[in-house]
Specification:
single chain; alpha/beta; eight-stranded parallel beta barrel; two-stranded antiparallel sheet; 13 helices; NADP
Length: 336
């Protein structure tokens, strides 16, 4: 397993991260989740990503249970704060000082650890002053409850505003966690260049576009039983935008390229995101251990430039590139 530095820090993580969004505590039972985590460990994955909002805190608990007994210093554990958990009261959401300081304690208890390696702002909070948020993160770091700070789905302007505050507070803001795949490239125009300038790496989620880039969804055919597209607990909504006949036909056109590299389509998709020098790690999820074992084979793969150009040609205008899509991911209103 290849390891990479995260941002402008001395902190190294595995090039493949195991994440448990939409799986632990939701799609699969705890014993299956534990088997996937152990498969990840066996494959050399040391980095694990979760969030308190996943399955309304259950995902953190399942991950903590699965990692129990493993040497803590050999693991990198990430979690996030923003979304509503518990009874979803008016202070149970966002990046206020109150919510951050209460949420970190809950996350640590569920994960069964004294600290997380990376604590991330899951979205940008338009209702809390940024300096309040960054001061709260600084206090979390100084209390020894997190080692580094990151964000998720922040725009270039938001990163640029946060970086000097982090520097002033003497904490290390080293990562952003955006959606990124061969089909979803909205970070390339603005977020990636800004991140390079600021010493921030990308921890990318959905490198296989919610499973579409595995090639298992065929144009004009029913979706496979038990797949994310048929999951009524949230998976179907996340994948819907990719399930057009045009996109699915183009994905099938990637098969010859994958075969030329002796890769599956899923491995090709993960290897593709890892070619971006600003990407430190790609998050994979799994409902079965064999999916973990397949995807880790993408670590260390180098796709020649000529084949990268062919991938671009095959996918064509099916690729989403509009940088404004990042801003759309952070809520502009509060229900509570």
């Amino acid at each position: 397993m290849e390891s990479r530095y995260l941002g402008a820090s001395g902190f190294k993580i595995s090039a493949i991260t195991y994440g448990n969004w939409l799986t632990h505590g939701s799609q699969i039972e705890a014993d299956a989740a534990t088997a996937c985590v152990h498969a990840a460990l066996d494959a050399g994955i040391t980095t694990f990503d979760t969030a308190d909002v996943y399955a309304n805190t259950r995902a953190e608990s399942v991950l903590g249970d699965a990692l129990r007994g493993h040497r803590r210093q050999s693991l990198e554990i990430f979690t996030k704060v923003f979304g509503p958990t518990g009874p979803k009261g008016h202070n149970d959401v966002g990046l206020s000082r109150k919510h951050i300081l209460e949420s970190i304690d809950g996350s640590l208890a569920r994960l069964g650890t004294d600290y997380v390696d990376l604590y991330q702002a899951h979205r940008y909070d338009y209702f809390t002053p940024l300096d309040e948020t960054m001061q709260a993160f600084a206090d979390v770091v100084r209390a020894g409850k997190a080692l580094y700070i990151g964000v998720s789905e922040w725009t270039a302007d938001e990163l640029r505003a946060a970086a000097p505050l982090a520097k002033e507070l003497r904490i290390q803001l080293i990562s952003n966690q955006p959606q990124y795949s061969a089909l979803w490239r909205v970070i390339e125009a603005e977020v990636v260049p800004t991140s390079k300038e600021l010493g921030i790496s990308q921890i990318v989620w959905s490198p296989i576009a919610q499973g579409v880039l595995t090639g298992k969804y065929l144009p004009g055919k029913p979706h496979p039983e038990g797949s994310r597209a048929t999951d009524d607990k949230g998976g179907a909504g996340a994948i819907r935008r990719f399930l057009t006949d045009d996109v699915l036909t183009r994905v099938q056109g990637l098969q010859p390229i994958a075969q030329e590299l002796s890769l599956s389509l899923a491995q090709l998709a993960v290897a593709w995101v890892l070619q971006n020098e600003n990407v430190a790690t790609a998050i994979i999820g799994a409902s079965r251990p064999e999916q973990v074992r397949e995807n880790v084979a993408a670590s260390g793969v180098v796709i020649p430039e000529e084949l990268m150009r062919r991938i671009d040609d095959v996918l064509g205008d099916a690729v989403e590139r509009d940088p404004r899509r990042t801003d759309e991911s952070s809520p502009k209103f509060r229900e509570a």
